[in-house]
Specification:
Rossmann fold, binds iron/sulfur cluster, 345 residues, 16 strands, 4-stranded parallel β-sheet
Length: 345
């Protein structure tokens, strides 16, 4: 493993694959926090004779692979840094796409134990804890489980993304099963918030970067979201937002929603966006509400991108029925639309 900026990257493996596949030109894609690492990696690759270009985009997740940039730059390989693998994308034979996880080299065990301590003090009745973590800290999963048990905590990890124990991404929390409470080992609030919304369980974030523990509070963010949904109850016009990011591209779902809304006598337009921004959306004109078929997290983490109430496909049922009584935050993550069972044309 090669260490760059506190991250471990398997450069030997990358070089072996690139040489074997006779790659000449590489496009490197990295999330904003790993851009510096991608520049340093490009220098290493250039020293080995490869031509390298850097993608300036955000690289939001494994759903976001820059095939168009690879074509324009005539790159025969894309190195996508920092995510575990493709999300809802079937990789083509060409260009070669290599997912290169960047493992954070700092051991998160101490901060995990602190989170467990705080959770057990919060409720001494907790018997089982579930561990969820992102790819950056996943190499420590085994050690975290062992040390937690040594300290008397019943901490478990369940198969998550790609069946990998404990692995979560922003839109997949299948690893968060059973248990009385969740410990999310991840930087910032994004993944911990997702785990809490998905599971409905008390969740603590053990942040290995800040070396801090935070209990996730979903109440405020959920009330704001539910209030926004209620504002959409009487909407007559909808903009259905579709992203061009390959793993977020949901045109079929958008067309299905448009058809139903039009049958209900509403106005519905579909807008396709490369980058979803408030400005781009506002350029489409005025609408009463927005339906987000792109990254499901936009509706809860970035609602300000939309000039009006934003609804995810799984939440349409509530809006069309004008009833939030049985609302489940899990429906936020649904990529297929849920319509009312009755009353549709
Ligand atoms: S859809 Fe959103 S949450 Fe899921 S991988 Fe992409 S950016 Fe992350």
């Amino acid at each position: 493993m090669h260490k760059i900026d506190n991250y471990e990257i398997d450069i030997k493996k990358i070089l072996t694959i690139l040489i074997k596949k006779k790659v000449k030109r590489i496009l490197i894609q990295a999330p904003d926090g790993l851009k510096n690492l991608s520049i340093k990696l490009s220098h290493v690759l250039e020293k080995h004779g490869f031509s390298v270009v850097l993608s300036g985009g955000h690289a939001w997740g494994g759903c976001d692979i820059v095939f168009d940039e690879a074509r324009l730059t005539d790159s025969d390989a894309i190195i996508h840094i920092g995510h575990h693998g493709p999300v809802r994308i079937e990789l083509p034979k060409k260009p070669l796409v290599m997912f290169v996880p960047a493992f954070y080299s700092v051991d998160p065990t101490r901060i995990l134990l602190e989170a467990l301590k705080q959770a057990s003090q919060y409720n001494s009745e907790f018997k089982e804890y579930v561990l969820a973590t992102t790819i950056q800290h996943h190499k420590w999963l085994g050690k975290m489980l062992i040390e937690a048990r040594k300290s008397g905590f019943n901490l478990k990890a369940f198969p998550g993304v790609l069946g990998i124990n404990g692995l979560i991404i922003g839109c997949d929390y299948t690893a968060v099963k059973s248990g009385d409470a969740v410990i999310a080992v991840a930087g910032g609030v994004f993944h911990g918030l997702g785990a809490a919304l998905w599971s409905g369980k008390p969740t603590w974030i053990a942040d290995p970067y800040q070396k801090k523990v935070n209990k996730v509070d979903t109440k405020k963010i959920l009330s704001k979201h539910l209030y926004n949904l209620s504002l959409a109850f009487d909407s007559q016009s909808f903009l259905i937002v579709v992203s061009t990011k390959p793993g977020q591209f949901n045109l079929k779902v958008a067309e299905q929603i448009k058809e139903i809304l039009e049958k209900l006598g509403k106005r519905a337009e579909i807008g396709i966006f490369d980058e979803i921004s408030r400005e781009n959306i506002m350029n489409m004109g005025e609408f009463d509400a927005y339906i987000n078929t792109a990254c499901p997290r936009l509706a809860i983490d970035d609602p300000e991108l939309f000039p009006g109430p934003v609804i995810n496909p799984g939440e349409l049922k509530y809006v069309l029925e004008k009833n939030l009584e049985d609302y489940s935050p899990r429906d936020l993550f649904l990529l297929v639309p849920r319509f009312p069972r009755t009353g549709l044309p």
